[in-house]
Amino acid sequence: MGTLKTEPARERPDLLAPPVLAALETWTEPEVLVAPIDPALADTAEFCEAYGVGLAESANCVVVAGKREGETRYAACLVLATTRADVNGVARRRLDVRKASFAPMDVAVAETGMEYGGITPIGLPADWPILIDARVAATPYVIIGSGVRHSKIALPGTALVRLPGAEVIEDLAR
């Protein structure tokens, strides 16, 4: 986990977005840690370099969207920072839409209640599938967003598969 100074996430509500904190009140996973960071270094490459975290220990959560019969469908894709989500292949098929793309920034922020650059799978809308690349689930400890840019969450990859709506998918990322 590099030089991150982690603490139990539930003890630091000031480091979590409101939807993340609310989710942690009902999701009883014990090993959820949080660490403060410089918000100017929240983007993955800068964060990893500044805090000595390997890209293979860091995961990005991207919001994808597609339409079917006039209805917009959303999903979160969680992939290691060394890979890219297969949005128009695997994610599109899972959403059952003709075309999937990254949700626009303003839409992702409004729909999640989280800051752009800090979106995390913890605390997302209940009807969204959370698609987790199998490599993320296999990571001993993975660093993800906290819903805000001034902190990061660290937890076992196996914990993520126990999130409500989580689905582990082989080759979600390339």
From TrEMBL:
<dbReference type="InterPro" id="IPR036754">
    <property type="entry name" value="YbaK/aa-tRNA-synt-asso_dom_sf"/>
</dbReference>
<dbReference type="GO" id="GO:0002161">
    <property type="term" value="F:aminoacyl-tRNA deacylase activity"/>
</dbReference>
<dbReference type="InterPro" id="IPR007214">
    <property type="entry name" value="YbaK/aa-tRNA-synth-assoc-dom"/>
</dbReference>
<protein>
    <recommendedName>
        <fullName>YbaK/aminoacyl-tRNA synthetase-associated domain-containing protein</fullName>
    </recommendedName>
</protein>
<feature type="domain" description="YbaK/aminoacyl-tRNA synthetase-associated">
    <location>
        <begin position="39"/>
        <end position="163"/>
    </location>
</feature>
<dbReference type="Pfam" id="PF04073">
    <property type="entry name" value="tRNA_edit"/>
</dbReference>
